Amino acid sequence: MYKKNKINLLIFGTTFWPLKGGAQRVAFDLFLEGIKRDELKTYLFLPIYSKKIIPPRMLKNTYFHTRKYTPLYNGTVKLLKLIWIILNNDINIIQTHIIEPDALLAYIASKILFFKKIVIFNTSHGQDIRSRDFVNKKFFEISLGAFLIRKISNSINMILPSHYLADLGLKKGFFTKYSIIRNPCEEFNSDINRETDDIREKGKKIKMISLSGMRELKRINKMIDLADELNRKSMLDKYYICGDGELRKSYEKYAQSLGLFNCVEFCGFVEGERKQNLLKKCDFFLLLSSIENYPVSTLEAMSFGTVVIASNVGGLKEQITSGINGILVDEIKIPSIASNLINIFHNKEKMSLLVDKGRITAKNHSLKNIFDDYLNIYRESLKKK
Q1: What per-residue string of b and e applies to 70-79 under the rule 16 or more CB within 10 Å gives b?
Q2: 190-364 falls under which CATH superfamily?
Q3: What pLDDT digit, counting tens, does each position of 102-133 carry?
Q4: What pTM value is reported for the model?
């Protein structure tokens, strides 16, 4: 056993705004968990417009900056304020986001304060760093890549879903260190699960739900095709399409053209109790995207005993063992998927297995468990060599 070091964590960047994205929600939930822990003091350094989402009781540990300046001046001001926060609060860990240039500012601050050990974490909470602007501008390769491969006194850590390593062609040693931590999921109590099972037991037709933005890569049109196929077989009760985006109107028109007026409902963006009530009543959760990372929505669905039907892409293959805690689809062949859903729906033993194993998967991704992994990395990083 090693002596526990005092952890003063600064979460630095724009990760928490807006909160509608899964990655932002994860980052914020981890922050909330962090301030509950006695062994961890957590501070925030965020844009001023994030004030609206930070509860008043947390403002005493929150520092804001504004984006009203020119980029160069803003960067200089942020750097000076960052250094002041580090010294004033004895910060020893800075956690920023791999997709944000703020990672570079954190590194510069650590080099200026060469007399003080600062551990820098560049985290990715499920977001796809390949698609970001600064990657396209070679910022990642030139700026971040250049300092991450150097042997420097302050340790640099990368926390990311493991499939990125293969997708980005990263080899061991590219980063000074990297750790794989999966996204957490909110825990729901057993009473909700029992209520969910009672509701589903009464259904004779399939209820489905999807929770995603209305973008082409999400393949909402394919899921509408699946609803149409099930409807033709007289097996569809309802398909709830939750989410918003620029393609929503075209998808609504498409569903109407197929005559799915009564069995497909566009719900818009849903959260809280509304989302929970929809998940409770549905048998299957659909996510047939062409690209995915490590989605939280699938874990939320599993926690309610909703069977996940998902594309075999990205981090989904780490999250789901097909046939055990969900179903992975290699090819989007609608008749085949529809037949598979109907067979599973009528096979109570199979449904039970998928539901039970899914709930175990969600429980293993509880915020407490995942944050324990973060704490272990924090402590290991602060150990004296």
Answers
A1: eeeeebeebb
A2: Glycogen Phosphorylase B; (3.40.50.2000)
A3: 777 787 888 889 888 888 777 665 554 444 43
A4: 0.77
